[in-house]
Design brief:
258 residues; 14-stranded mixed β-sheet; 2 helices
Length: 258
């Protein structure tokens, strides 16, 4: 990565990534029809510019990524982000955030070539293409963080495993056009320097094409909660805490979806 400061106006980031994936076919010995070994080379080149159009009040981030896969070709992926600070002081902040952009997900080898009992991949899958936008409000105080956002996505060739016959055979499939929208909220409480409580709720509605059918494998609701203890951050406030607990980091998490 390369970082180029812009004399108070912002900065520009340039970067490139290169990685490889390998699928080794070991199904022949189990009696399944072999699908052969497969390799994939992935490369990304990206540029991102961050501008302070109004110092401490308005920030814009624009990015462009050229993503390529050896078995699917290249895609140009633009993104745009906006942050407006409505109020900011030593006591806290209130911000409006918005983002829009395009992303692509190449089929995983397991989605292309899986051959398990009752599960099949599909070597003809197309990449999952998405246009997404979201907007929300963030509030921060010394002891509280509150976030709320609305999001909307259009998925083209969404990839999911779904039943294909009455014998509960599951196969990876492309679903043409899928509309996704929903809301997400998160609350973080900091009642004490060593303790962090966080809760989040997400509602996601999906619709395939012009019908009312939900996308398989996509939960409508998700609730997550986490209570964390961070002993090293207690500082002087942890004087009454046992020494073994002052050096410990502990958490309990709950995740439900349905």
């Amino acid at each position: 990565n390369l970082l180029l400061p812009m004399a108070g106006w912002g900065r520009v980031d340039l970067g490139a990534e290169l990685r490889g994936e390998l699928f080794v076919d070991d199904l022949g010995a189990s009696g399944e029809e072999p699908v052969g070994d497969h390799q994939r080379l992935l490369g990304d080149v990206f540029v991102s510019a961050q501008f302070q159009l109004w110092p401490e009040r308005l920030r814009v981030v624009a990015g462009l990524r050229l993503a390529s896969a050896s078995d699917y070709g290249a895609q140009l992926l633009p993104k745009l982000g906006l942050l407006v600070s409505l109020w900011k002081s030593d006591a806290g902040y209130v911000e409006i955030v918005a983002n829009a952009g395009r992303s692509v997900r190449y089929p995983a080898f397991s989605e292309l070539y899986a051959r398990f009992e009752g599960i099949r991949g599909d070597p003809s899958l197309e990449p999952e293409d998405a246009l997404a936008a979201d907007g929300g409000l963030r509030l921060g105080l010394s002891w509280l963080r509150l976030e709320g956002a609305y999001f909307r996505r259009l998925l083209v060739n969404a990839i999911r495993f779904a039943a294909i016959d009455s014998q509960t055979m599951m196969a990876a499939q492309n679903f043409g056009f899928v509309h996704v929208q929903g809301v997400e909220t998160a609350l973080t409480l900091l009642p004490w320097r060593c303790v962090n409580l966080r809760g989040a709720y997400t509602y996601t509605g999906t619709r395939q094409g012009e019908g009312d059918h939900r996308l398989p494998g996509q939960p409508a609701q998700r609730v997550a909660a986490r209570i964390a203890w961070d002993g090293p951050s207690c500082g002087r406030r942890g004087r009454g805490v046992p020494s073994w607990l002052r050096s410990a980091r502990l958490y309990v998490a709950l995740d439900w979806q349905g």
